[in-house]
Amino acid sequence: MADLPFKPVEKVIDIVLEASIRQLDYIINYKDHEQGLKQHIATLESNKKTVDERVPVAKDNAEEITPAAQDWLKRVERKMEESKEFHDDKMLDSKTSCFSGGCSFLWNRRQLGRKAKKILAPTIKQLNQETPDILANISHPPAPTFADSNPLDGDYLEFESRKGIIEKILEQLKDPTVRMVGLHGPSGVGKTSLVKQIAKQAGDSKLFDKVVMAIVKKDPDLLKVQQDIADGLRLTFGNIGENGRATLLRKRLKQENTFVILDDLWDELDLNKIGIPFHDDDVVSSHVPSSKKEEKEQTASENSPGSSGTSKRGCKILVTSRYKEVLLGYSDIVKKVVEMSNEIPKFKPETLHNYCAGLPMAVIIVGRWLMKKNKLEWEGELERLKNQQGSNEVHRYMESSVKMGYDHLESEELKSIFLVCAQMYHQSLIVDLVKYCYGLGILNDVHTLTGARQSISKSIQILKDSGLLDSTSNDNFNMHDIVRDAALSIACKNQNVFTLRNKTLDVWPHKEQLERYSAIYLHKCHIVDGLPERVNCPRLTFFYIDCDGSTLKIPDTFFEGMEELRILVLSGIHLQSLPSSIKCLPNLRMLCLEKCTLGDLSILNHLRKLRILSLSGSRIEYWPTDLDGLSKLQFLDISNCFISSSTRSLSLSSFPNLEELYIENSLNKMEVEGQINHSQISALSELKHLHQLNTLDVYIPSAELLPADLFFHELNDYKIVIGDFETISIGDFKMPKKYEASRSLALQLEPSMDIHSLKGVKLLFKGVVNFLLGELHGVQNVFYELNLNGFPDLKHFSIVNNNDIEYIVNSMELSQPHDAFPSLEFLSLFNLKNIKKICCSPITNSSFSRLKIIKLKMCPQLKSIFFFYIVEFLTSLETIDVSECDSLQAVISKEEGSNKVVLHKLCSLTLQKLPSFVSFYNNSDRPLEPESMEKQARIIDDIGIVPAEDEQSSTTSFSLFDENVEIPKLESLKLFSIKIHSIWSDRISNDWFQNLIKLTLENCNLTYLCSLSMARSLNKLKSISIIKCSLMEKLFISEENNNEYSKDCIFPKLEEIQLSGMEMLKEIWPCEDEVRADSFSSLISVDISQCNKIDKIFPSHMKCCYLSLKTLKVSSCEWVEFIFKSRLPSQQSGTNKSALLEVIDLHDLPYLKQVWSEDPKGVVNFTNLQSIKISFCNTLSYVLPASIAKDLGKLESFSIYSCRNLEEIIACDGGSETSNEPPLMFPEVVSMSFRKLPSIRCLYKGRHIVECPKLKQLTMIECPNLKICKTESANEEEGASLSAEKVKVLTKTFNIIVFYSLYPPHHGHDLIDIKHKLMEKLLL
């Protein structure tokens, strides 16, 4: 016990000793700590390089970078910046050497050792440890947008009646009590086009977080409906069944505010079975945060950009059907059923009723034919159409309309093509139509596939002009449902076609019917008893079965009665051996066995007339060595096939008439034990025997497989990939889709390969249109060494990951200028380590004359993009995008005698992470002093000492554009991490950038945005975004002689301002005497965050600026005291002005005193306010001045969260009220939320009663003193709250009442007691 008093002393001594040892360790072992840190940094740099390489690959595959990966990269950037001083060994030695004079080296050693060991090393080590997880989860596929998956119809007819329906449905969707809306109308009236318009408007207005759509159709495929919805939500099901999908989908739909469209229901659909939540119980309210961390995360999420701000998560549903009875089946949840009539006011109603049933599709079809006819022909055809109709049923009218268009097609060939189109799916491939029509032999005088493509292209355009086909793309076509139904009816009657889709086939048609059929189509049908042993179809020319499963068996004698069959399509079927009865098909011209499992194919030799053979996606167990019987074959598709067993050759030489060959991703899958390369070489060597070949789609894993005498130059279309397959997904290159006409080449050679030995490949350079060039060892000059013709047809050129190329064009050794890339439209250079110049030799005027876009990234040796003399050739240049080019000093390099640079068509300029950049137009060959490039904010170390030698900075200043640069059509300017100090020089002409629309700046050394004279010229600017420009103190500066531009209007069309992370910014707006009052008159959105030196958002002289404002968001601005700093006039003018402001969102403003510095008292009205959200504003005592609160007729939602000193919502107007004051009305308020407001006592201290007749959701959390309601007989001194009498009525219609911690938790009330207490507090 005697030693007890000394225990604390020993403890103190131990602590002091430990601290002293730690400080000595920093000094003595600083070198070890420095080396350890450098090792961590080297590892981090390597890891960052790996991640950086993966990011563009993911982006080029249209994937989104995960937030975790983005955060990791930001943290790495910060740590690399903080550790910069450890890269300069010379500086470190000068600071830590004992010969530096005095004892300061000890202090420097201590500081550096401490920073290396304690501050940087642990965090950098942690970043390195996180790298594997980041690489494993670097990106994810993006959700397809609604517009991508459901493009708007180009022929959408906008009628006045339709506008009313759209407005009515949107109004219902905004109502929180409505869960489902129904829309019904007859087929062809335009329901699908209408709901797409509704979806577009709902998406544009941010009414929902997500919009998804599924077309249900008759006999719906529930799995497809689930998949369509999941695709729009970016939800992956995996290998789970229908019930599991429904559960997963239901959970996902509850997470966001989602709009689900179910189009074209024929019968009532079980929404629960699909996984669509539709009861009120499925709506999830904002939950109560259970911890401080969760509270901060929830608040940050709600205040994040792009947040919908809604407190409900779940889904609303729009259902369309032809039948009202279907919608009435959902009467318990459908709150509104809207009818679409057959009304088109521009036409005479009796004409539409008599001839078109008022159907827009019928009008289009009839009208497009009659529009070219005279009056007599009109009357005759309309009379004939009228006489054809024996019924008033809508489908009869539609069939008659389609029949009329069909009858007037100019040839039987065109009619046959139209009926074939009707048998195909939505968004069918044009190439499939070519194959079907060529296989059927219905194209007159067409004997080649090239001729067939041309004929079909013309026919599609004629059918589209006739209204019988919907809008088409280069690869697809579509047909409206009701046109298809009518066409199938015509085909059934005229050509005896049997079609069944998504049905069960229990009984085969009678023998007499089968004998009459010319075509049988079975799409996704369940054939109960399987196929019969034999069917007698002597007239059958087309037989199609698309099967989901592999259980269907084809009897060996099945095809014996189909002698006239010309097309046979079997998809998804397991065929261990092909039926022997295939030999009984002597007239077969097209055979498709796609996604099948196939055995021996030798029997195909019996099909002597076969022209088209497609085995795409199949597994082929045995490929015959001899297929001489297919000598007439013109089309062969074996892409994505798995060809195994003992395949030695593809027997391609057996097809001397082959025109089109598709073997993408099949050569690399050919498996021959120990001889994979030999089989691939054999297959490629046979290509030289195909003299008629004009289209080739092939992936060759290695250039070593290419025979020396193989030539491709006679091909019309090709997609050839030679080398590393992953290369084609790097940078901006996209290989065209299968069957898409193109001349595309992706080339990457092994180090041992010489491009000059591949003469066949080099011949392709003359005609290639899309070219991706990877590693090509030994080639330094693209133009001179690869193609002296200058790549005359090349339009899209990407070079990636090449370490040898130094020049794109360098023809100094040639005596005359040559054409170089005269057709080039897109140039992308990615990760070219040694490229020095793009073009540095004389070229002709046509060179680069069509170049529209140039993108450069990670080209560290490049100092400029173009020399001045090339600028005159860049007559089409529209976009320049340059990033991470460490040596780049200028976009255009000056030369002796250079004049002014004018880029007449350039509309987009992006410069990012260019540490050596000086200006747009500069002498890039002169050496730059490091001091002249540095003018950055000082970084203070952890003890606040700045070394004396760092306190000086150069006065040299660089402008991006000077008086010698004119870009009159520039619309978008984006600058990221550029060390310029101003954008425009003082001497620049004010009209040279007058078309600028969007300006984005991030992490630049700018001290201001622009001068007032320059601002005056930017009269088309709509968007300004400035982020982390830490030196900027104000946005605008005045010239020394500012009388010339005083009181001018600036930025008259500016709609959006975003300012974030501006540490030094003090002034946003010009001074009162510098600009006119109508400046910024179109401003719609202001978003300001992390600007800690601003004390007010809108000063008094900027009143006109916020009159047009609709959205205002201010967050994390430490010193803001007022949002609207007002100055009331001494006398009322009598002309009050109304602001358009709809949304106020204020977050984390610790010194905010008042939103409005003074009550505007009607001088400015805020009658359009719809949403007010305020959180973490702890000095705010009230929200709304009384005059504003009395006129908020459009306010819908009100949310106040964690404002410690808030006492009331509405400020009392100074005792001017009487006891007979009318109530304060908020007629549109639907939701109120008050959370964590310990000081609040009432809504309003005045005598008014507050009434909210539409209030549906009331949330009160941790507001122990709040008296939300009172009776009219209560003490008037307590202040006004919600009328209890009104609330008694409203509680019957409340959807949700949230209550929690109205009483302190230690009172011990259980949930039931709290509920009773709450109701007492509300109603008594």
Automatic annotation (TrEMBL):
Family classification: Belongs to the disease resistance NB-LRR family.
Gene3D superfamilies: Helical domain of apoptotic protease-activating factors (1.10.8.430), P-loop containing nucleotide triphosphate hydrolases (3.40.50.300), Ribonuclease Inhibitor (3.80.10.10)
Residue numbers spanned by region Disordered: 285-313
Annotated SMART domains: AAA
InterPro entries named among the record's database cross-references: AAA+_ATPase, Apaf_helical, At4g27190-like_LRR, LRR_dom_sf, NB-ARC, P-loop_NTPase, Plant_NBS-LRR
Ranges annotated as biased composition (Polar residues): 300-311
GO BP annotations listed: defense response
Encoding gene, per UniProt annotation: LOC107475814
AAA+ ATPase domain residues: 177-345
Transmembrane segments: none
A Pfam cross-reference name: NB-ARC
Alphabetical keyword list: ATP-binding, Nucleotide-binding, Plant defense
GO molecular function: ADP binding; ATP binding
N-terminal signal peptide: none
Top-level taxon in the UniProt lineage: Eukaryota
Protein name: Probable disease resistance protein At4g27220
